Amino acid sequence: MSTTDTSNSPITNRRRGTLQLWSRTLIPTLREAPAEASTPSHRLMLRAGCIRQVGAGVYDFLPLGMRVLQKVSQIVREEMDAAGASEMLMPAIVPIELYAGTKRDVDYGDLLFKLTDRHGRDAALGPTHEETVTEMAKGSVTSYKQLPLNVYQIQTKFRDEFRPRAGLLRGREFLMKDAYSFHTTVEGDGGLNETYDRMYQAYVNVFTRCGLDFTVVEAEAGPIGGSASHEFMVNAETGEDTILVCPETGYAANVEKCEIGDRDWSFDTDATTDLTKKHTPGMPGIDLVAEHLGVKPEGMLKTIVFAKIGGDKRKYVLATVRGDHDVNEGKVRDVVGFPIALADEKEAKEAGFAIGYVSPRMAATRDDTLLVIDPDATGGVWATGSDEKDHHVTGFIWARDLGADLPTKDQQGGKIRVADVRNAGEGDPSPRLPGAKLVARRGIEVGHIFKLGTKYAQAFDFTVLNEQQKKTTVIMGCYGIGVSRTIAASIEQRHDEWGIIWPVPIAPYHVVITVMDPKNDEQSKLADKLATELVEAGADVLIDDRNERPGVKFKDADLIGLPVRLTIGDKALAENCVEFKLRSEDGKGRLVDIADAVKETLSKLA
Fold it and tell me: Looking at the domain covering 276-418, what would its CATH class be?
């Protein structure tokens, strides 16, 4: 699937491989991992001597780990270059004044590493470089003739995680590829959409070439900002993120973005029950309230208060979902058609909202408030807040207690609307095929692409002269790959009880030649001969020439996870053979004639 001119074989895209002796490099394998190493990739990278912890969330990359890092980086470079991007390098230190227009120093909060130099100047260690690259481009690009432009870097990034864990999956220092594109249009030749599609395919190429099983999902842009967005998720049971997939159509999205198919709804109910207020003091969380009221969480309504961002007149939005569901802020924003944020608790209380006890009825009493109701929270009899601290009500019926303002399926768009405003979950209707259901999977995010639009260009007043010699605001895209994270994600996906199982394209070495007795000239000479032939064919070879017991060598070979192991010992030599074993296969190896060993090895690495 690669767009480059290189061969599909991971070992033929260069003239020669490399050769290293185990005794001449640093591979400090461990029998046990530290107790705090909780994930497979963290445990195995420490045990295999790929990394070593320096501090919380900060690691040395030892020789094996560094080789993998370089291989992933090279694949990324080749595909980025093939997609028309140019590599550059920006400083890790970002002057704090660059955040003046975007306020991302505030948005990132405590995640941002901040420092002050000896002259009292404030700066940050860059988590990403949108501001830096926009300032650079503004100073370098003045005409539409210089666009489109796509630049990238592979550089260390920093985030001050409160509780760094999982090794390279959530560290405070990590290697990332970040690319940024600049355009004068969205559509057409040279437009943002064209580059976005090209980068999408480049990412597919990168992760395919890395030997990963991954899913591309629709996603929210998050703190970076922007409109369209896709995440590239490595499929792994240990993944922190939930992906929702329609198995019939291939539609996939993360929880924050996933749409839900049509759900029937109505405000009609035959029930006749009194609206009864009940005292519910000191009960944080809906589960305690439901238990006290004698209902289940799915029998309650949860109403969240949002506030409009910007504008002279303060406007509030109430979003109501079933008690066992979660409100999706992005969906609420899309329904109302203007930017929103969770209302400040103090300001909302001063405006008359009993935060924690808000009911949908507040919308009927206020001209400045919209109400959006999820379809699953319509008909029936409900328990809900009472708009009074420490009190809820039971017996809430929409038609009776909210009145004639309720919408119908044929008439929407007023002050009260019914729309999909909750997070999707497994078993929900597919948005792409009636009758199909969404299935939940686990994944690890390794790549994310965004259509940023004009957010950063406006903050920096970055304009260029167009063909009509009029100023036009530059449109941007942003494209990130977690290079070090990709390594950890690969191990989360490919390992067993014995150790790592590297995909061929990113394995630190392709072959380990295990010499049972390094002092035996015949064994050592054969190891050198096979290694030389493999290196000439483009393979990376590690010769285990240590004076260790066979059991130690075999365990270490399984632990570091190289794709092929060739074992040279007296028993095999007596039959003019070497033992051949693929790391991905269980059981013992098989004997292969010495004359065929190189050919057999190369065939498995292709």
Answer: alpha beta
